[in-house]
Amino acid sequence: MVSLEDLLLCYGPVPAGCSPGPAQPFSGVTIDSRRCRPGDLFVALPGEHRDGHDFVEEAFAKGCRVALARADRFPVERCVRLAARVFRWQGDSWTCSGPEDSRVTVVLVPDTLDGLQRLAARHRKRFQPLVIGITGSVGKSTTKETVAAVLSRGFRTLKSVASYNNEIGLPLTLLDLRPEHEVVVLEMGTYGPGEIHLLTQIARPQIGVVTNVSHSHLERMGTLECIAQAKSELPASLPEDGLALLNGDEPLVRGMAGVTRAPVRYFGTGADCHVRAVEVHSLGLEGIAFTAETEGEQRPLRCALIGRHSVYSALPAVALGRRLGLSWEAIEAGLQDPGARLRLLPIAGPRGSLLIDDTYNASPFSCRAALELLAELPGRHIAVLGDMLELGPYEESGHREVGRLAAPVVSLLVLLGPRSRWIADGAVAQGFPEDRIYSASDHEDAARWLFERLQPGDVVLVKGSRAMEMERVIDALRRRL
After folding, report:
1. Can you tell me the distance from the alpha carbon of 216 to that of 219, in angstroms, rounded to the nearest whole number?
2. Phi and psi angles of residue 422, each rounded to the nearest 5 degrees, phi first
3. Per-residue DSSP letters for 27-40?
4. Comparing C-alpha atoms, which of 358, 331, 336 is closest to residue 347?
5. Measured on CA atoms in the order 408, 411, 417, 421, is the torsion positive or negative?
6. Class of residue 266 by CB neighbours under 10 A (exposed 0-12, middle 13-18, buried 19+)
7. Is 273 strand, coil or helix?
């Protein structure tokens, strides 16, 4: 683990008169005072709604040993009240004050996020694991989970927790790196140019996986080409002896071969893909089956991920498993790990129904895949769909497209959010009866209307953008069991 001395050395040498004391490692590093444990480092980050600097005293009360704070947000008076040892980075050197035997220490720097990232980058350089970065508009979290599930069959593996895929989450993941870890699997997200480049400077991946480029975040980046350029920062960062693993079925991803120094291998279903899936079959709620072809080998495999589109999350795991010498048996065991499922989770619903929880996020691309799965399942099909956000100029047409796709699949359509009116318009344009569409005022209203119409054997897809909190519809239905 990292220590106070490591934190100070991220900026520069510590003068003899400012000794940080024994190099006692922190128990952990946290940005949430509610999760503080004795011996932790608390990093005070300013946020949109809350400022971590308001919770430094709470962190110390819970046993944190050191707080990293911004000098302009944590005045000297507070340090005095805490009787804290204070280290302050000024210009190009450290100054120190306060009692050397203080129970708590405050480290003041110009930017605490930068400090967290410096600390993570320094910690990463101590070890020599194989670091794998994964990015893409859709499916990167599922791909990360699947790759980690497979590689953990042969290697001690660290992976990003939940969606720790940004300039805060990735450093926190790397600070959990230990000498025993052989492989690190990191998800890398972006809202704009330069962000993935920053993450690669911290993590220094040797292998980069790009899943796809779609309309997610189009509102922020303007065009698909701009999204592709942002995602290409991952393969562009890779060393000459690394590996760029690219979705060969997507032209914008395939084009990223031109920006990397690393060898390139394509995965997909196309005949020229180095790692290829053929004979892909949906097994309904049991997952998918396909035959993997690579390096002249063929192997029939089963995977716990649901829906034929999930093969694009499975193939990178197959490719990396074989590259690192895992047996086919180990690879298939990882593919069948139910813990890799983040999306399309089947849950028992009221009145003998089945809920398909796909509330993780939504885009036209992922809605198409979810509706394709729904069409394959027995029973009456119902979709509860919320707004898809950050689609920019594709916003109206994307929602209308989802409505057109839903029309031949579902018997009832429940909609939530102002943009979902375009889903209704798209469905009606395809001949879907208007009296089978309900525009709910909120999550509880959606659950109430649907519950009154549920029948045994119904299959209900619930999906929408993360900010729509569509899991609240699932919760409201589950309360009616």
Report:
1. 8
2. -70, -30
3. S-EES-GGG--TTP
4. 358
5. positive
6. buried
7. coil
Residue 374 identity: L
Integer-rounded Cα Rg, in Å, for the chain is 25
Cα gap 245→481, rounded to integer Å:
45
In terms of Cα–Cα distance, which of 430, 331, 328, 330 is closest to 371?
A: 430
Residue 191 tokens read as 């809202």
How many angstroms separate the CA atoms of 208 and 232, rounded? 10
Q: Hey, which residues does 385 pair with through a beta bridge?
A: 415, 463
Residue 219: pLDDT over 70: no
To 10 degrees, what angle do helices 364-376 and 395-406 make? 0
Residues 184 and 151: their CA atoms lie apart, in Å, by 10
> Which of 153-167, 172-186, 463-477 comes out lowest in average pLDDT?
153-167
Q: Are 202 and 121 in contact (CB under 8 A)?
A: yes
Residue-wise pLDDT tens digits, 376-387: 999 999 999 999
Q: Which two tokens mark 321?
A: 């498993």
| pLDDT score at 27 | 95
Of 254, 326, 328, whose CA–CA distance to 292 is shortest? 328
C-alpha 70/C-alpha 79 separation (Å) is 12
**Helix (H) or strand (E) run with residue 76 in it:** helix 76-81
**pLDDT average, residue stretch 431-453:** 98
Instruction: Indicate the pairing of strand 264-268 with strand 243-247.
Output: parallel
How much is the pTM?
Answer: 0.91
DSSP 167: T
Largest pairwise CA distance in the chain: 79
Secondary structure of residue 444 in the 3-state scheme: helix
DSSP string, 322-389: HHTT--HHHHHHHHT-GGG--SSEEEE-GGG-EEEEETT---HHHHHHHHHHHHHSSS-EEEEEE---
Q: 462 - beta bridge partners?
A: 357, 384
**Helix, strand, or coil here: 417?**
coil
User: Is 90 exceeded by the pLDDT of residue 310?
Assistant: yes
Q: Given pLDDT bands bounded at 50, 70 and 90, which one contains residue 191? A: confident
Q: Are strands 381-386 and 412-416 parallel, antiparallel or unpaired?
A: parallel
pLDDT at site 221 = 67
427 near 420, Cβ under 8 Å?
A: no
Q: What was the pLDDT predicted at 418?
A: 97
Phi, psi of 165 (to 5 degrees): -120, 15
Residue with tokens 């050197």: 93
For a pLDDT cut of 90, what percent of the chain falls above it?
Answer: 84
